[in-house]
């Protein structure tokens, strides 16, 4: 299904489900739209057909899912990504870090989970604060560059959307914060795909 607009996706899936004896659906797309996952979750809950999302928007992990949904997504949650990142930080003895987020949905949970990981650890983490960015009303990125310079840690955990990440890294590059000596870990459920963030 190449057309992933909501109406076409729902109509095509319902046509397939009503015309064939199907025991389950494996779904892959190359979008990064969470709307695809929400539609598949809804269809699974309404039809009781198991759906497995393996790539793209269908694999963006949703929590919570619709009641009665049997929608399985093969992607990693924000919590799983953070657990791996903290193991890397521990391995290299990078204990001082700062958190940078936007107002992207789930940012408060992200910040809370970072606190859970650091508070429940025997490692002497040096959490240097949280910077929450509001990218609206700053088209030139002047305020963004200034705010990024105020972060004192060289290691930064960033939670945002893909589009926001592009703007943040552009501003970080312009502010001299994306070169040697700075380590950014980008966390989120919608950042995957074959395209890379700009260098």
Automatic annotation (TrEMBL):
InterPro entries: ANF_lig-bd_rcpt, Peripla_BP_I. Its main location: membrane. GO terms for cellular component: membrane. Keywords: Membrane, Transmembrane, Transmembrane helix. Pfam families: ANF_receptor. Residues 33-187 form the Receptor ligand binding region domain. It comes from the Eukaryota. SUPFAM superfamilies: Periplasmic binding protein-like I. It is found in: Membrane. This is NMDE4 protein. It comes from Steatornis caripensis.
């Amino acid at each position: 299904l190449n057309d992933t607009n909501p109406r076409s996706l729902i109509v095509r899936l319902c046509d397939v489900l009503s015309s064939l004896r199907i025991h389950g659906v494996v779904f892959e797309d190359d979008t990064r739209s969470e709307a695809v996952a929400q539609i598949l979750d809804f269809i699974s809950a309404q039809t009781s057909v198991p759906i497995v999302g393996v790539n793209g928007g269908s694999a963006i992990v949703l929590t919570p899912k619709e009641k009665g949904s049997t929608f399985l997504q093969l992607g990693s949650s924000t919590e799983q990504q953070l657990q791996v990142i903290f193991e890397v930080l521990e391995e290299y003895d990078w204990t001082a870090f700062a958190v940078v987020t936007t107002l992207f949905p789930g940012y408060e949970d992200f910040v809370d989970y970072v606190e859970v990981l650091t508070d429940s650890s025997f490692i002497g983490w040096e959490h240097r604060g949280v910077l929450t960015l509001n990218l609206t009303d700053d088209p030139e990125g002047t305020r963004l560059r200034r705010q990024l310079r105020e972060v004192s840690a060289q290691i930064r955990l960033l939670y945002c959307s893909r589009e926001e990440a592009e703007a943040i890294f552009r501003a970080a590059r312009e502010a001299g914060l994306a070169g040697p000596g700075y380590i950014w870990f980008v966390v989120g459920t919608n950042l995957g795909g074959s395209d890379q963030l700009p260098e």
